[in-house]
Amino acid sequence: MAEPPLRPRRRFRQPSVIPGFGLTFGYTLTVLSLIVLLPLAALVLRASQLGFAGIWEVATDSRVASALRVSFGISLLAALVASVFGFIVAWVLTRYDFPGRRIVDAVVDLPFALPTAVAGIALAALYAPNGLVGAQLAKLGIEAAYTPLGIFIAMVFIGLPFAVRTVQPLIVEIDKEIEEASATLGAGRWHTLVKVVLPPLIPAVLTGFALAFARGVGEYGSIIFIAGNLPYVSEIAPLLIVIKLSEFDYGGACAIATIMLGISFVTLLAINLIQAWSRRRFGYV
Amino acid sequence: MSSLAVRAPGPSRPTSQPAPRTASVVTEGGFVRWLLIAVAIGFLALFLVLPLVTVFVQAFAKGWAAYLAAFTEADAHSAIRLTLIAAAIAVPFNLVFGVAAAWAIAKFEFKGKNLLVTLIDLPFSVSPVVSGLIYVLVFGAQGLIGPWLIERDVQIIFAIPGIVLATIFVTFPFVARQLIPLMQEQGTAEEEAALTLGASGWHAFRTVTLPNIRWGLLYSVLLCNARAMGEFGAVSVVSGHIRGLTNTLPLHVEILYNEYNFVAAFAVASLLAGLALVTLVIKSVLEWRYSADIAAGARRH
After folding, report:
1. Which CATH number fits domain B67-294: 3.40.190.170, 1.10.3720.10, 2.20.25.90, 3.40.50.2000?
2. What is the DSSP secondary structure assignment for residue B110, as one 8-state letter?
3. Minimal-distance CA residue of chain A relative to B95
4. Of A13, A133, A218, which is closest to B127 when you measure between CB atoms?
5. Whole-prediction pTM value?
6. Helix (H, G, I), strand (E, B) or coil at B127
7. Do A264 and B125 form a contact (C-beta atoms < 8 A)?
């Protein structure tokens, strides 16, 4: 039921017979401000007191710089791996049928449901030199726990569901007729996949990558147990915030937090741009 | 290769064609299919299932007695109590907020709606540690209103109110972001009909809207609760780690682990892992049975 277009009168809200706008909108705005916006404003206020120079000074401190490098660098790598395997998982779950498919599908959400601290100690126990996987890796001369590799493993764990769940709905929606058309026109299966099936999925893969990346950068609980937390080597930025706080260095903590917020803001912006581009190019997100 | 046990795709979506017996042009060869399934399952088993199994293996490493001993401690009891208190406040709070926000956003057209939705989603893109930090900046001893509160003997940070606030923050978007698309898809026609027939707004909400969104609501409350009980980073920053007073279950796990009391740490962790498993099972059942009533479109997230 299309509503008749409103006369071009400037009004905040279109008229409706449904009651309760004032109450629910007012409540939403009040709660949002008290719980989310004002506390975040406190961070912005603190950061502005430090000024750009102050934040820069903290950011270029060698320990902070290397923590930021560890967090962002490893998170990029982990998001990449999560995206590749996430795509395979999403493809297998939507395109193939096999016994236990629904259970496998449910398992993908495990990192969403499992508390991060639980995941953290489990990963640490598993990849420690005397752990089930760690012992095997040790035979190959690979140290996983208490090294950057451990951080990578935890970030892949935490990022995987994002990679799977952003791509999966789009694979479901692929119209098989275009694949048939491609095959009819003489393209091999591989050719069809690369030229016909994959291109429209790229925006979703990029979005999943960005979400996994953002989650990895901010992640704390599942990483600190397996990381070893060696300054300059395997110390992540969120941990450094906690350390600064425990030293009552609020300024330092705020500076790191501001840098992290800035980068996740840029990531969010990138996701929105990808989706806008995708909407123009393919007509959907 | 078509004799492999792996069937061609399709049974999940009803089609008029019979399942193709010969090599289909819209799927990969049998070997590639088999290989991809093996890679996917192997990867999930190694990265997701193995850690979960490890929790229970380690918890029972020294037998039942050692496992149960972890729960006889007074500190464990107070951690369980605090976790339940935090969830019992945070989940209903976000439930009311989510329904109110979804009502305002889904049932009305107004300017700046997209911005409002983005702001509600904000806590999901903030690192848990930063979520805790912002409350320290407001209520801490050096915070904005902390000194004023401390003069009046009100303790927020390093006390239960801070833990509750941090829990509310990290679970803030769960209910709202689930309900908004669902209620948008359902439109306003049914409510309008109820109002025309003389129902009051509250009556229309209770008898028309609520039954329409009940599965979506249950689904989002379930996920909200799992996160509320399992939150670690944000709560860790505001808690102060006072044993027996401001320790939630995840923080208790950390303390036990750092004391090398591994059996107890994994025993308490197994409680949280059990909660996660129950959540996953109920969530999956809801998705299988009521997927259309849970999310707009077909799938969620």
Report:
1. 1.10.3720.10
2. B
3. A28
4. A218
5. 0.89
6. coil
7. yes
